[in-house]
Here is the input.
Amino acid sequence: MHKYRVDLSYDGTDYCGFQRQLRQKSVQQTIEEALRVMLQNPDINVVGCGRTDTGVHAKHYVLHFETLKQIDCEIILYKANRYLPNNISFQQIESTTDDFHARYSARKRTYRYYFHFEKNPFKDKFSLYLPNSLNILKMKESLKYFLGKQDFTSFSKLHTTVKSNVCNITHLEIVEYGKNEYYFEISADRFLRNMVRAITGTLVDIGMEKYEPETIKEIISKKDRRVAGKSVEAKGLFLWDVRY
Here is the structure.
């Protein structure tokens, strides 16, 4: 078998997420159908670096697939970008080693959540409009309480099948990249389902001064999803980078 790695990006607006779902359009299904046609192989299955929720985007996503026959990566890259819809773009296809796994070989993932305070119809698909400004200084002050290896049950979707809710968050920042335009960036070894959107929603509550930054310590210690903020909409969230 020959194994190949694909680096890609996608606009998740019209998809139920990366992973295949019954009777819904997913990024995985769309890519698999394209590769099966191009490679004339109905058995092609792709393995992604992780699942993304409905409406979540990816600037840098990684997947792998295997074939019996060796392929010309440059030709398939060219054909894929002509065949796939405009909301999915392959940046690179390359041969990889047998032990590479798009999901399990990843060592760090980075997400960004975009939000803005001035209504702008051209940002609506990719950034959350908040009609009232936030106390950004308090939001930044709270970031230090998320750092390190901790149990993030309070920020996880309920009733998941993971064996552990412990994650090691190594980096967080809030960046102003334009006038009244911001993004929240977070990096960790792994993320729980809905974790970034729940953390962002909690940061918004702090920015609205519903509670103080140090309250994060109490929220984490309680391991109870009900004590954290509501999850923000998916549209502002991007899987920004994956490192191996």
